[in-house]
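HOLO CASE FILE
Compound: pyridoxal-5'-phosphate
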Amino acid sequence: MTTHLDPADGTRAHDLDRAHVFHSWSAQGALNPMVIAGASGSEVWDFEGTRYLDFSSQLVNVNIGHTHPKVVAAIQEQAAILPTIAPPHANLARGEAAKRILDKAGPGFEKVFFTNGGADANENAIRMARQFTGRDKILSHYRSYHGNTGAAVVATGDWRRIPNEFARGHVHFFGPFAYRSEFWSESPEQETERALHHLTRVIQAEGPGSIAAILLEGIPGTAGVLVPPPGYLTGVRELADEHGILLILDEVMSGFGRTGDWFAWQNQTVNPDGVVPDLITFAKGVNSGYVPAGGVIISPAIAHSFDEKVFPGGLTYSGHPLAMASIVATIDAMEEEGVLDNAARVGRDLLGPGLAALAAKHPMIGEVRGLGVFWALDLVTDPATRAPVPASVIGALKAELLARGLLPFAADNRIHVVPPCVVTDDEVARALAIYDEAFTAVPA
Ligand code: PLP
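Model generated. Tokens follow.
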């Protein structure tokens, strides 16, 4: 509902923020945050009543759309019954949430450890892998983001790791990325083969007996929606098995509907051989962030290794009832309303062809990558050299998109097209027209 909007509240929200709120990953001085007053489905609006199509899903987490009535009601009901309880107690919402998540993960998983978000999910998965194997090292991609806590941020590959490099035992390697290949590959098959050769050499050079786990995003998201080429995940699993290394898949961004599947690793394109990880981390889409939550989905072998041995980790809010109730309601509503099918169909029939048509028209769009409601436009100054566009172009595009009523997601030289999984055909058509106008307005 957009009733009772008072522009004075917008001014106050902005002023209070600038005076007192310290923001993530930012120099604080020049910030000018957009004030959001309310949201519903795939739209957000400000205190002036201006509406925006949310093609960011915020931080790619609002998979079920904003203010879903069933999820809101479940949180309200739980708040009236038991709004908080310490983790040692059992509570119904937590058990129901764990059961539903395990049903979606399928055979090969037995327990869930709940956390407050994605970073601490990875933190605890890393801890479990180290405890289980008795080894230290964690291998992860340079093109990755795994969260901002001690080990998760050092497992991260992007620039955010560098000022935070205080955890030990982390090694990085290059994953496949055919459009900007590190391996001079000329085909996806070659990219897979050479990326796996590189990983083999890194494992040999690091000493296989010192490596606890390989940690990968199901589909690297913030790094550019890098759908792995055929055979890559299978090859990584084989290498891990050969050396007694665990495979942790970080499905924080790629999970719970983004690809049209519950997890990206269950997607035919991503993982045609159906290899199964040992640990899965999740957050974001599991409850669309209505209450902070994340967790680790654990294989029986790892879960039972802590039957006698103490697991040395815990959180006051592990399995917080409001978060758990919102997970139960989210998963049930996604199922009842065919939300995953919508995401898959929108990707296949609308966004895939629509974005390809935009690329054919605008040479600045060097590559369109993705599936479901998880896409990236890789923007270049020249399609031949693939030189990334400068930040000024991204800034101009963001301004043109916002001016036309679309809230975009931008990272480096890319615009990510990541609407909620519930996005309608009409909203996709409107968004495609807005992207077209913005690319027409901004020269490369
Ligand atoms: N892992 C991935 C793949 C992510 O995309 C993110 C956040 O963007 C995280 C982990 C960290 O999640 P959180 O911000 O909830 O700690």
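CASE NOTES: The pocket of pyridoxal-5'-phosphate is lined by residues 59, 117-119, 122, 145-147, 217, 221-222, 250, 252-253, 283, 294 (CB under 6 Å). The chain has two domains: 7-67+338-441, 69-336.
CLOSED: yes
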